[in-house]
Amino acid sequence: MRLSNLQKYILREVWDARKVKIGRSGLVKFYESQKNAPAKEMQTKIITQSIERLIDKGLLVGFGERTKLKWFIKEVKFTSLGKKEAKKLLGEQAEFPFKKRKLKK
What we know:
The protein has 3 helices and 3 strands; from the N terminus they run H-E-H-E-E-H. The chain has helices spanning 5-16, 40-57, 80-91; strands at 22-23, 60-66, 71-78.
């Protein structure tokens, strides 16, 4: 499953949390280490979209408030599929971009 860097960060943060549910306030830290971070308003919008996409994929469950037009997600937690994907992310090792050589016969 393809995930963006922000989505991977969200899954790691939920995995590392001591609580079952994690608030979205700690997810803004993702942009602190980036040089060209978007504006604060855009950060909130981007994080919301990433959380909603993770919910659509079945990796997270969102808790919050519902109005007539929109959901306001305040906390998230894992689904069983999300736990499996997070374990896979933690155990994954990056591959070097070396070209594979063919053996001469």
